[in-house]
Amino acid sequence: MDLEEKALESTRIYDGAILNVRKDIALLPDGRTAPREVVEHPGGVGIALEDEEGKFFMVTQWRYGQRKVMTEFPAGKKEKGEEPLVTAKREIIEETGYEGLDFVHLGKLVPTPAYDEEVIDLYYARKGRKLGQHLDDDEYLNVTRMSLNEIIDGIMNGTIDDAKTVAMAFMIREYKERTNEEH
Amino acid sequence: MDLEEKALESTRIYDGAILNVRKDIALLPDGRTAPREVVEHPGGVGIALEDEEGKFFMVTQWRYGQRKVMTEFPAGKKEKGEEPLVTAKREIIEETGYEGLDFVHLGKLVPTPAYDEEVIDLYYARKGRKLGQHLDDDEYLNVTRMSLNEIIDGIMNGTIDDAKTVAMAFMIREYKERTNEEH
Question: How far is CA B56 from CA A141, B47, B51, in A?
Fold first, then answer.
């Protein structure tokens, strides 16, 4: 069965600072039409930065939409059209103060497939030189370090619930097992 | 450091069919203010339904915001205020035609912490009676079955990239290892 839905019409709903919303009329596979709301977002990156002791840099910050503090791998939004590796190399320095080396692209992650264009490129890197943290003007976060086992324990006991962090932790363990080498 | 950001003002931007958007002015920890855009969403569930051969029901559907077909664990949106287990029991029948038994709550997942309220409750269940698929009027999907190893291979080779599906597959493998029992 061909599942594609084609846009027939598109209406701008909102053009904001970090997201836009549009509402399309889509042509369904059976010839009927249906409304489709879409959150437009340029996409982002997540970066798992591992130090020489096998610990990963984690950022803890207030997540406004969730009304709570969350602990996550460092992440950031792409500038429009930016290559994700460029974003990753910039964001890891800004959030942790350390450069990343030997970046491995773990894959892409679609956080919200039902109504959002966002795609997150997932990277795994090794800690390089200390260059100094440089946060955005309205960004407040605490940086800690956790082993992969501590992160996976946090996922299983519910204290870590950010989707990219869950995906990256397990994908890194799987990657390490499959390549069977120290990164 | 206290990281909490408190809402000072809130402006309705859009009230839609599957999502709303508001724009708040937030009080930052240092006393300054900043705009915060929030996608409002009632939350949803993901359900991994395992048959007697250890294979999981997967749904393949067109994802409009991503402009591609994606293969995912069955999922659905909560009615406002609905208990997630109620949603899960309904959605698994609607999408696969089978009831779920012995539901295990794997945890909660936050797909998009930066700007979205959505939380997904993740469930693992055993296949029960065949009751018949019942899709929404504008919902088209194909149902297949995959082993956990096939799903994890798909994640690592990039053909499966839905965040809840990635999280659930690895969490189920971890859950099976930790409980060391057939579910």
Answer: 39, 10, 6
Query: Which chain A residues have a beta carbon less than 8 Å from that of B158?
Result: 107-108
Global pTM reads 0.96
B142 close to B95: Cβ distance less than 8 angstroms: no
B62 membership: H or E segment, kind and range: strand B55-63
Q: Residue B26 and residue B94: Cα distance in Å, rounded?
A: 40
Instruction: Render pLDDT for A102-161 as a digit per residue (tens, 0 to 9).
Output: 999 999 999 999 999 999 999 999 999 999 888 877 778 899 999 999 999 999 999 999
| Whether pLDDT at B183 is above 90 | no
Higher pLDDT, B29 or A23: A23
Interhelix angle B163-179/B148-157, nearest 10 degrees: 140
Residues of A in contact with B139 (CB under 8 A): none
The minimum CA-CA distance between A19 and chain B, rounded to whole Å, is 8
